[in-house]
Amino acid sequence: MNPLASTFITSALAFYTIGVWGERIIGRLRWWNFAFFVLGLVCDTLGTGMMFAFVGGMSFDVHGISGVIAIVLMPAGHSWSSSRRTRSPSRSFTGSPSSCGSSG
Length: 104
Fold this sequence. Notes:
Blueprint: H1 3-26, H2 31-55, H3 62-87
Helix pairs in contact: 1-2, 2-3
């Protein structure tokens, strides 16, 4: 197996953890939380693709099917979250890349 697959999957775990716990502690979705979610999704997708290539494609068992469902649902969740946050001013992303470190 390609060792990069494990590296990407582990990186996804780290990025998701930083994004989720950052939002949980702050209580709001900031631009950098969302960036970590997206980085996690990218790493997760790359790692999963490498693993699919290693085993010769999709395996139609519980593990393979649940993995595909997760990869499909994550972008849907990210899209829903960002659209929900941008539609409501009280729920919008707070801070901006230029205000990194400030409370605004």
